[in-house]
Amino acid sequence: MNKAIVLFAHGSRDPLWRAPMEAVATRIATQHPDRRVSCAYLELCTPTLPDAVRQLVDEGATTVTVVPMFVGTGKHAREDLPQLVQALRAAHPGVQFHVQASIGEDPRMTALMAEIACESPSA
């Protein structure tokens, strides 16, 4: 299991906020048992991105894909994340890092959100 995925999100003090992120991680782990997956947060909860990556590398990850779980490409995706990844590359020179576009920028996600928005309300 040398490939790992980190689902990177903003974070919240509310523990219920994490549930959807953790559900995505669980689904990945179920559908791709050959890959380690972890959630990481920019602030307000743990683990941080550096902590999550350190654990994955300690467990043998040599390739880490960071998936920004943001609806759009705002400041966190444009500025904060590249700085964090640059520091990760320096801290783990033997690890390949890939950063995907923000999840909300994917046309499949846009289509799914539009489909959900157009559903008839359940009464």
Give the domain tally.
1
Q: Give the SSE string.
A: EHEHEHEH
In the predicted model, the low-confidence regions spanning at least 5 consecutive residues are none
Under the CATH scheme, the architecture is: 3-Layer(aba) Sandwich
Shape: globular
What's the end-to-end separation, in Å?
A: 46 Å
Give the total of beta strands.
4
CATH C-level label: Alpha Beta
Arrangement of strands in the largest sheet = 2-1-3-4
Mean pLDDT: 92
Question: Which structural category do the helix and sheet elements fall into?
Answer: alpha/beta
How many helices? Answer: 4
Any key phrases for this structure?
20% strand; 4-stranded parallel β-sheet; 123 residues; 4 helices; Rossmann fold; alpha/beta; single chain
Report on this structure.
By secondary structure, the chain is an alpha/beta fold. The chain contains four helices and four strands. A four-stranded parallel sheet has the order 2-1-3-4, with helices on both faces. Helix 1 links the parallel strand 1 and strand 2.
What's the topology here?
Blueprint: E1 3-9, H1 19-31, E2 35-41, H2 49-58, E3 63-68, H3 75-91, E4 96-99, H4 107-117
Parallel strand pairs: 1-2, 1-3, 3-4
Short structural description:
The chain has helices at 19-31, 49-58, 75-91, 107-117, and strands spanning 3-9, 35-41, 63-68, 96-99. A four-stranded parallel sheet has the order 2-1-3-4, sandwiched between helices. It is α/β, with parallel strands linked by helices and 123 residues long.
